[in-house]
Amino acid sequence: MSLIKFKNIETTKLITLDTHLKTLSSSGRELFIQDSAVFAVFIQLLTLKTSVISYKTIANLIKEQKSKYHMDDCSNSIIANKYIFKVRTLLKSVMVEDFIVTVRGLGYKISNKWLSVQEEDNNEYNKSAFLKEITLIIDDCIIYTKSVSIVQDKSGFTYIKPSQDIVINNFNRMNDCYHSFLSQYSTPGNSAELIDLREKITKVLLYAIYWRVGDSLSDEKFRADYKNELQFILKQVIQAVTLLD
Description:
Blueprint: E1 3-8, E2 14-18, E3 23-26, E4 29-32, H1 36-46, E5 53-54, H2 55-65, H3 76-93, E6 100-103, E7 107-110, E8 114-116, H4 117-147, E9 150-152, E10 157-160, H5 164-185, H6 191-208, E11 214-215, H7 219-242
Antiparallel strand pairs: 1-2, 1-8, 2-3, 3-4, 5-7, 6-7, 9-10, 10-11
Helix pairs in contact: 1-2, 1-3, 2-3, 4-5, 4-7, 5-6, 6-7
């Protein structure tokens, strides 16, 4: 296929590379990519099967395209940086500035904000399935609080003391859901986003096993706070998932 398209999930902006005409277009602008080495880097980035394109891979691409190579004494990272700079300059010419991000010590990757149009449906389905299960778990937890007694101990703390079966069931659902999602999105370039998501999921887990404790709250207030706090955490989980590629 001669057209390779990516879409920004936040702005819905499209970027298109025509591999036949060697043109790059976005925001109503179009330009011809004259430098064969820069074009090769574009192709490699947009058809990447792994999450990160290494300095070495980029350097080798450049060496293949240049008949009289003038950077023989330069390291792979210096060569890669020079040509990624050229790629970013072309992207800026079509009003795109956030397409490529640096993965320190490894190379470069396409920003998580940009998805291949071909892969977008499958990717969004996986995210949707994960969020649907997390939402269902949260809804079940909230429903359970409506029928169970709220305990208040001698210190004034209020909490729910669920049955062991409920705790084990909720933990297993959370564990299966999270690790299934993690296995699909665990890549070097996603590490920061996955750590952020883990923190949010850990908060949900603490509520799902009913470790949430209130201070001298009435039953009605405890249930209301439990519901509101969980729904707020769910919004944070949704935001964290959106950033993952």
